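Backbone-to-sequence.
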């Protein structure tokens, strides 16, 4: 085999390997639902753990934080001022039980204490592992899938939730001012490019 052909072959192999090295991440924003006025469903998967039986808890927290930012961004982009968490019901119960008054408290309601995210140790966990009698309130927004990549595998824990957009402050534990959420210091560590429909 000539040096030129060998070089081209090696480059092709490297290109194939490089294409499979990275995990896939996405933000999905569905259009307003048919039965819920100005209701929107979102899925956020912007973090994953490679090669790990631990670390899932941090993945869930990052994706949950992004989901709250996505809800705020979507609300402003569609001309509304406020959004209210509208599902799933267990998450709504958690925010009410914790007497949440701002977006930071909404985050920490799932970060620690009763009803918050559990620590998941199995990289093979999937949809069914997040349901059942052991599931706590915040666990009900988490779904899992494992992606095969060149360096082993990415253990995804993505967030799925629903919210309603409106212009009136409902003054309850589920309603947040979208502009205040996006401008808060609490959200400054996130990448705004991931607040909209995208795949990377």
């Amino acid at each position: 085999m000539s040096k030129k052909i060998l070089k081209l072959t090696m480059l092709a192999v490297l290109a194939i390997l490089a294409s499979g090295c990275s995990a896939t991440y996405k933000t999905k924003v569905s259009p307003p639902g048919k039965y819920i006025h100005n209701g929107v469903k979102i899925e956020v998967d912007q973090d994953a753990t490679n090669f790990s039986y631990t670390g899932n808890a941090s993945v869930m927290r990052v994706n949950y934080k992004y989901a709250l930012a996505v809800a705020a961004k979507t609300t402003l982009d569609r001309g509304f001022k406020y959004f209210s968490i509208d599902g799933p019901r267990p998450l709504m119960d958690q925010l009410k039980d914790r007497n949440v008054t701002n977006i930071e408290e909404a985050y920490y309601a799932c970060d620690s204490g009763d009803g918050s995210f559990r620590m998941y140790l199995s990289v093979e966990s999937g949809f069914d592992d997040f349901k059942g009698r052991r599931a706590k309130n915040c666990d009900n927004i988490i779904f899992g899938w494992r992606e095969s990549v060149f360096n082993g595998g990415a253990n995804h824990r993505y967030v799925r939730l629903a919210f309603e957009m409106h212009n009136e402050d409902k003054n309850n534990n589920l309603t947040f001012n979208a502009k205040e959420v996006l401008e808060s210091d609490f959200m400054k560590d996130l990448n705004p490019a991931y607040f909209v429909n995208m795949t990377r």
